[in-house]
Amino acid sequence: MRPRDERGFAMIELMVTIVLLAIVTTGAYMVLFSLNRASTTTRDVAGVSQEARLSLNRMVRDTRQGRSISVVDTNISDDGKVSYTVLVDFNQDNVITQPEPNAEGDYEALTYEFDRDAGTVTLNGEVLMRGAGCADPECEVFEYSSSQMQYDWDKDGIVTTDELDDAGCPLHGNPSVGNCNNALDVELALISNVDFHFSIRMGDAIEAFANQAQLRNKA
Fold this sequence. Notes:
Low-confidence stretches: 31-42
Radius of gyration: 30 Å
Strand order of the largest sheet: 1-2-3-4-5
Strand content: 25-35%
Oligomer: single chain
């Protein structure tokens, strides 16, 4: 028999228990929702990073197969865009088919363009990478250099486009290499390397990408 002074839960005790249970349950759900959002963000960033890596790898791969760089636009202040065109003899018939595809359906004149305002990199007008940005203040996402070390005037081991251009100045007197006009034009014939410098943004996350492609089939 139950003792006479044994009592059940008072109403106030029951209410306190319910409130505490509600607080614990709400906290648990908030943690779960937070983890789910974090997981989704991580997947999104990973997806963007994967797209960027695949795009960068394609640019590097195609450029390495190139015979020459034919057109370069380096002035981003004009319209927020910079680009270069690399010529690749994909079917190895010693003829660069352009602007239409070759007999095997491959474009052999590949134009990669970075649009700062749109945050994209395109290949022949088709979007290749999104969320792209500048990795340095001057926004030099494409940089060019040469393996012709005789034009390394400052002896730093890198032959820049400015050094190639300076070859045509009176001090050096080699107009067949450069024309001393502070522009990349006739010097294209000696360009053998393209450096890539990008930043990829997804929300508050930023990842930097950098690589270099050396033209292995330089004409």
